[in-house]
Design a protein that fits this description.
Elements: E1 22-23, E2 29-36, E3 40-41, E4 46-54, E5 60-70, E6 75-81, E7 89-96, E8 101-113, E9 117-126, E10 132-137, E11 142-145, E12 149-156, E13 158-163
Parallel strand pairs: 1-12, 2-12, 3-13
Antiparallel strand pairs: 2-4, 4-9, 5-8, 5-10, 5-11, 6-9, 7-8, 10-13, 11-12
């Protein structure tokens, strides 16, 4: 993909198409790509993790490419939804439960001017008990400005979660003893 020749994005495997017009040097960073999720979960519980762009300094944002990692032994993605987000087109909204990865490439053709933007909602199910697990945005994540510039997020967030053991219910047996006079 020659779009990124000579830039820090030269080896990025994202299918970004027309989203990227020009890449900037690595020190031109902007905001944060964040993930939020519940802090405490139980096995078999379903939950939603929200991916967002924060602290955008009133820049007009045209798109985002974000990669989220998770532990596939303890969590599995059940779906990704993009309703109620700030982007209208998704070039990629996929997941791999074997590798523990979620990829999102979203675009808003004319740009969005807000300090915080909702990107996607990732729906998970807890597969098994582990003491702790996390969702983490990884460095293969980029923000695309409406003026064609590409920025690397200043911060990538992590959501730490505790998974509690399954509750066991104690069974109490009550027996009625019938006595007869002797």
């Amino acid at each position: 993909m020659a779009l990124f020749a000579g830039s820090l994005l030269a080896n990025i495997p994202f299918p970004l198409g027309a989203l990227v017009l020009r890449a900037l040097p690595g020190d031109d960073r902007v905001g944060e790509i964040s993930v939020t999720a519940p802090e405490t979960l139980k096995p078999e519980q379903e939950f939603t993790a929200d991916i967002a762009l924060n602290d955008l300094l009133d820049l007009s944002i045209r798109g985002v490419a974000a990669t989220l990692s998770f532990n596939p032994q303890s969590l599995e993605v059940t779906s990704i939804t993009t309703d109620d987000t700030n982007f209208s087109r998704y070039e990629d909204a996929s997941y791999d439960n074997t590798k523990g990865r979620v990829h999102i490439v979203a675009e808003e053709k004319n740009g969005v001017l807000k300090n915080t933007l909702s990107v996607a909602h990732v729906h998970f199910k807890v597969k098994s008990y582990v003491k702790e697990t996390a969702l983490e945005m990884i460095p293969q994540s980029y923000v695309y400005l409406a003026n064609g510039e590409t920025r690397v997020p200043e911060r990538l967030s992590r959501a730490d979660m505790k998974i509690l053991p399954m509750e066991t219910k104690e069974k109490t047996l009550t027996a009625k003893i019938k006595t007869e006079p002797v």
